[in-house]
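User: Please predict the structure of the protein below. I'd like the answer in structure-token form so I can feed it into my own downstream comparison script.

Assistant: Understood. Taking the following sequence of 187 residues as input:
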Amino acid sequence: MTTQNLIIYKFNALYNILKELDLDLNINISFVDTENSLNETVKNSNTNLVISNKKYSNINNQFILDDTPINIFKLVEKINIEFLKMQFSSQSEVKVKNYIIDLNSREIFIKNKKLKLTEKEINTIIYLSKSNQPVSIDELQEKVWSYQSDIETHTVETHIYRLRKKILNAFNDNKFIISKKNGYQIK
């Protein structure tokens, strides 16, 4: 489990309250009151949630607490929800080569270009990218399509062909999925 870091930015009263509950919350709590110290603290980790009492445009993962007073249990619940959102968001993106796959929106993108994918296409790409060697058609049939390997079908070849064509048309990349004599591979 990754450590959750709660950074209280320019909100001293909230820091003092939460610091008293520090042991019960199971969260690292810190206070910063300058933009430089905030930037220094945030750059070391992507598991930071920054709480402040007003919106700052240059802060990521920010939770604005502007409706005070608030019940302490409601506040802790809101903080936990924000951490869950951050965790969900970070787990939804998979890096494959120079591309990012967003599992939630089922899109693959690089820079400002993106392409919509099917669930099978995403599963195929992720399975191929996790292998260090070419993956056989039989293995893809079994692991991605849940077919028995002794069934005669060209499903895998057809899907790979169409997927490669989509990638080529969208990103002009004809080396994303490589055909080898013993299967397919993403390097």
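That's the full token string. The chain has a mean pLDDT of 86.
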